[in-house]
Write a structure and sequence with these properties.
The chain has 164 residues and is of the alpha+beta class. The protein contains two helices and ten strands.
Length: 164
């Protein structure tokens, strides 16, 4: 009886080790592509403005990121002249400051905050009555942090410095 119990336990251990080996090999297999959220690239536009709605710069970005945070991170990595400072908040990621061409916009001490706006009506609100207006077009405040807002084809996202 003891010999058959040991044999069964040995068999179970070998099966578990074999399963782990297969899982391990699949995780490092270069032919197996891990799933990527929003794999098909979409084209979005970013506009960065100062506290008077003057355009600092704008850029189109082809992104496969599923949310605004990911797309902004892609843009930050792509543009050497741009640097974004983030804060993790209750409603997602927020931006404390952004620097473009060595000029920093936003400062909690100066009561100038970085706010996100868009023309995506599903994720914006005009409740604050303070839209960003660029070239005659109004953009309303996003209702959530960047990590909670999905990016959509053709949508424009405005990153604006606002004084309070």
């Amino acid at each position: 009886m003891k010999k058959s119990t040991i044999t069964i336990l040995s068999l179970i251990v070998m099966l578990v080790l074999a399963a782990l080996a297969v899982i391990g090999l699949n995780s490092i297999n270069p032919f197996i592509k891990p799933p990527v959220e929003g794999e098909d690239a979409i084209l979005i536009t970013f506009i960065f403005v100062d506290e008077n709605d003057n355009v600092i710069f704008s850029e189109e970005l082809a992104t496969s990121s599923g949310n605004l945070e990911g797309a902004l991170t892609e843009l930050d990595e792509k543009k050497d002249s741009l640097s974004l400072q983030i804060i993790n908040g209750e409603a997602g990621v927020y931006y404390e400051t952004f620097t473009f061409n060595q000029v920093t916009y936003g400062s909690a001490l100066g009561k100038i905050y970085i706010l996100l706006f868009s023309d995506d009506e599903e994720y914006t609100t005009d409740a604050d009555g303070n839209p960003v207006v660029v070239s005659g077009k109004s953009y309303d405040s996003l209702t959530d942090g960047a990590s909670l807002v999905p990016v959509k084809e053709g949508v424009t996202y405005v990153i604006a410095a606002r004084k309070f």
